[in-house]
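User: What would this chain look like folded?
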Amino acid sequence: MKNNSFHSISFEFTGRFLPPVYILVFVIGLVANGWGLKYLLHNWKKLKIINVFVLNLGLADILYLLTLPFLVVYYFMDRNWIFGDAFCKITRFCFNLNLYGSIGFLTCISVYRYLAIVHPMRVMGRITLTHSVRISVMVWFLVSIQSLPDMFYSKTFGNNIEQCFDTTSDSYVDDYLKYSLGWTLTGFCIPLLITLGCYGHVIVVLCSTNTTDKVLKQRCLKLLFILILLFSVCYIPYHVLKNLNLWSRVLQNQKICRKWSNGVYIARQISRGLVCINSALNPLVYLHGNEDIPAQLRQLLQHARQMFIRVPVAQTADEIQQEIGF
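Assistant: Here's the prediction, encoded as structure tokens.
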């Protein structure tokens, strides 16, 4: 049923919402990922198999975080892209590499945990550091192949003001929706099912075995919580609302307007802000995957606390000495 009374879309909401989120994620993500990568590189000789995936996860985050200042400028200039069509495509390509690379490496971490806990005797000595490096290269390759077609869609549009689309212009939105649905299936749904299957089996094994170390159970449950948090907050809303918003745009091209179009658009922009937060949340995997890092954090906090405690004591001692006449 067609409806010719189109409802206005609140495009200005994007310019108000995304820049503060990008700035916050840029600062927190750069500090957290930089510190995590520095730790991994400093302890390169002690690098474990799972840390190779964590290292690549951090590199994917850094790659995307470096593009955020350009997007902040874009929205502060009222969605006027001044950096050219090629760099617009590169910026969006880096986002896709980060998003689906993060999903891929989190899936690798989940599979590795599953094998190490459920089938320890079968994989003992068979999975080496070289294997994890090869798997990481394969993840980068597959994610690049999936993301490459996105660069062939039109990303910029406008005469006086040139926009930089995160999907594509209205002229190609019909084809892009089909591509996006296939991309969602292969790049998100399948890894999600693998991750849930691995950790579901791990939890069953840990809960049914009384001999399992309690610390190991707690670590696995914590990592499962982190992954559920990442997928629930960052990834699931983004993919659902992305495809729903594309469908809304397809209907608008057909002169069919729905009352929910504006609500879907606003929710879609919120999901874009949430999905970029994964670059700031991914360092939680650093904290969980390395036993030394939480200990270092506790030492730093304890040292800082002691410094704050000592300052007023020193000032009081000086005042006493002045009163006595020293």
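The chain has twelve helices and two strands. If you want, I can go into more detail on any region.
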